[in-house]
């Protein structure tokens, strides 16, 4: 999904950086109460994200989640158009595992084993029409939708909720999908 030549090295560096970057004092990040993994599977469109170096120049970003054949993990396929909406398609394939079976809202994702990153579902629509994903230090944030667009009122309410939870919503960058 990223424009760099060796995606595995890129992701290794990303997960290493996540583990070493200091964070400011904040209340612990809360996740949603329960996630039905089967409902969560499928295609998600990235509506907005915190800017990050591994998605520089990514447009029309999608993520597809499917259970592996044995059902023990989730295959993750991230895609984006490089540098422009009609750019070359990039993809990264990884695996995710539920890290907290009480809620299914905390996952560990790897694109380069044995290095894992946190994937925490911090907001979720009642019908799984949108999701918000972050990690404990709040350094990364993604707003996802089942459609390439999201209702403006829903998005506005999500921003309000995120601001109350110590996210800097001014950092969110809307992802062009068309």
Can you give keywords for this protein?
9 strands, Lipocalin, alpha+beta, 178 residues, eight-stranded antiparallel barrel, disordered N terminus
Question: What layout of secondary structure does this protein have?
Answer:
Layout: H1 7-20, H2 37-40, E1 42-49, E2 58-67, E3 74-82, E4 89-98, E5 106-112, E6 115-124, E7 130-134, E8 141-145, H3 152-164, E9 173-174
Question: Would you give an account of this structure?
Answer:
This protein has 178 residues and is an alpha+beta fold. The chain has one domain: Lipocalin (Beta Barrel). It contains three helices and nine strands. Strands 1-2-3-4-5-6-7-8 form an eight-stranded antiparallel barrel. Strand 1 and strand 2 form a beta hairpin. The two termini are 17 Å apart. The N terminus is likely disordered.
Largest sheet composition: 8 strands, antiparallel, barrel
Number of helices: 3
User: Could you give the distance between the termini?
Assistant: 17 Å
Number of strands: 9
The H/E string reads HHEEEEEEEEHE
Helix content: 10-25%
What is the structural class?
alpha+beta
Shape: globular
Strand proportion: 35-45%
CATH fold name: Lipocalin
Low-confidence stretches: 1-23
Cross-sheet strand order for the largest sheet = 1-2-3-4-5-6-7-8
Quick take:
The chain is an alpha+beta fold. The chain has three helices and nine strands; from the N terminus they run H-H-E-E-E-E-E-E-E-E-H-E. Strands 1-2-3-4-5-6-7-8 form an eight-stranded antiparallel barrel.
